[in-house]
Specification:
This protein is mainly alpha-helical. The chain has two helices and no strands.
């Protein structure tokens, strides 16, 4: 259940980033980098321990 809430929070943040990107394209690059880094962090740091369970 805890993992699901983490995932839901990530989805909410991503939606928030998308709305920010629509507002100002000047900051879009940094937001995209932020999203990509969080996805990579999730993929490499969060998924492997979950796979072992």
């Amino acid at each position: 259940m805890k993992n699901c809430s983490i995932l839901n929070n990530t989805v909410r943040k991503t939606a928030h980033y998308k709305s920010l990107i629509k507002r100002s394209n000047a900051e879009a690059d940094t937001l995209i980098e932020c999203i990509l880094s969080s996805i990579l962090f999730f993929y490499f740091a969060v998924l492997p321990p979950l796979m072992k369970l």
